[in-house]
Amino acid sequence: MESAAAFGRVGALIGGLHGFNQFSAIEGLDLVCPTHCTQYIHTIRDRFPTICHAGGVGTTIRLPPAGKGNGKTREYV
Known about the structure:
Elements: H1 2-5, E1 12-15, E2 31-34, H2 41-47
């Protein structure tokens, strides 16, 4: 997250998060989309129900172009 923040505001965390458990890093994001190999997927879903969206094969996530938008949750299908 810190490395990505060097390029600007981090708005989303998407993918296999494996043993990621730095839950405070998720606070302030617009979207978190943990996939099948996320060890703490249920904890993330429980702690962040308004921004947590299911991901996986066939999931479509539409994000605004970099630097656009007002920081609110976008359309996640």
